[in-house]
Amino acid sequence: MAGRPGHPPLHRSPAAAMPPAMSDAAISIRGLSKIYKGGKQALFDVDLDIPRGQIFGLLGPNGAGKSTTINILAGLVNKTAGQVSIWGFDIDKDPRNAKASIGIVPQEIVFDPFFTPRETLDNQAGFYGIPKNKRLTDELLRAVHLDDKADAYARSLSGGMKRRLLVAKAMVHSPPVLVLDEPTAGVDVELRQQLWEYVRELNASGVTVVLTTHYLEEAEELCDRIAIINHGRVIANEPTRELVGKAQEKAVSVTVDRDLDKAPDAICFDKVELKGSRTLVITYSKDKVNAGEVLAAVQKNGLGIVDVSTQEADLEDVFLALTRAG
Ligand SMILES: Nc1ncnc2c1ncn2[C@@H]1O[C@H](COP(=O)(O)OP(=O)(O)OP(=O)(O)O)[C@@H](O)[C@H]1O
Predict the structure, then answer these.
(1) Can you tell me which residues the record assigns to a coiled coil (predicted)?
(2) Atom number, ligand 1, closest to the C-alpha of residue 229
(3) Which of 270, 239, 271, 274 minimizes the C-alpha distance to 254?
(4) Burial letters for 89-109: b for 16+ Cβ neighbours within 10 Å, e otherwise?
(5) Which of 32, 35, 40, 234 to mutate to test ligand 1, by most ligand atoms within 8 A of the CB atom?
(6) In what order do the strands lie in the sheet with 89-90?
(7) Quick one: average pLDDT of 119-144?
(8) Which percentage of the chain shows pLDDT scores above 70?
(9) Ligand 1 pocket, CB under 6 A
(10) Rounded-to-integer distance, Cα 101 and Cα 81, Å
(11) Which is the most buried residue in 103, 188, 255, 323, by most CB within 10 A?
């Protein structure tokens, strides 16, 4: 969704401007645990700060605890232990302001199919007690490019349109924090790009965005910071470029022309392993050296090279390595 010239910012300060206990984080989570009825523990003592102004990615495999976390933020699931504040408002002590500070786009598409997009947004604004003359219905419809569908039944919208309507619905009360739970599931590539453009636009207007996704490439492209959650625990929480830095590791497998007793060493190798008697698996950082230098180092040890194969790590590998370790 391309930004429109003169398009008004969709984010206004939340109704309660100054939170009592000002915290720097948009969302602050301390010692959060959740045990469902029946005994399933979905979260274990989670600590997480989501900085203001960022696009923050919450990644994790199925069943990791992402939805549980989001549902606790949304007030849909009761936590078992811990503290959560949204925009500085404690969800137990100040639930009204905490709720007013967050908009949530759920994973499932849920709204009444007999309401039109305009009615859907108007009803939601009414639910938040926003007076008619303060409602942003038309602006929101324009922003998500549904102005020409404003009066069509929701059931006649395509999947992508419905998803955009859900985003608009989450923004009716101009929350400073927007959470999207797997927003692109079932959305085709083009619409996904449009949705991300809109998310970027919202973020540029000051909205802190939290999203869960399985699309690591998208998280890499969109998010300033990424936390990885696995089996109910946060196992990584780093600026995206640092996490991606971990993906700078590259391995090359080199078969040499004679049997070796031990692997040779060189400064440019991060790690070297001898497999069988003739194959060296050498790990190096591709931001520091290139494959040519690595091979030259092998030859300097007086070895001839018979065969070479390389493997490249990407964020997917880092994610898998971290979640396996968890
Ligand atoms: N209402 C519930 N009752 C019992 N167990 C639940 C309930 N909701 C979730 N769980 C369990 O808690 C764990 C975490 O689930 P959660 O939905 O938070 O994971 P997730 O990371 O969001 O996964 P997904 O990507 O599949 O949505 C899972 O083992 C799940 O089966």
Answers:
(1) none
(2) 21
(3) 274
(4) bbbeebeebbbbbbbbbbbeb
(5) 40
(6) 41-51, 25-35, 81-86, 89-90
(7) 92
(8) 86
(9) 36, 38, 40, 42, 60, 62-68
(10) 22
(11) 103
Tokens at 256, concatenated: 């040499």
Instruction: Name which residue leads in pLDDT, 322 or 208.
Output: 208
Say yes or no to pLDDT of 276 above 70: yes
Alpha-carbon distance of 84 to 26, in angstroms, equals: 11
301-318 pLDDT, tens digit per residue, is: 999 999 998 766 566 666
Among protein residues, the one whose CA lies closest to atom 3 of ligand 1: 36
Q: CA–CA distance from 89 to each of 26, 37, 60, 73, 232 (Å)? A: 10, 27, 26, 11, 24
Q: Which of 204, 119, 205, 121 is nearest to 166 (CA)?
A: 121
Q: Which residue has the tokens 């602006």?
A: 139
- Report the alpha-carbon distance of residue 180 to residue 108 in Å, rounded: 11
Residue nearest to atom 8 of ligand 1 (CA): 68
Q: How much is the pTM?
A: 0.77
- Asked if 188 and 160 touch (Cβ cutoff 8 Å), the reply is yes
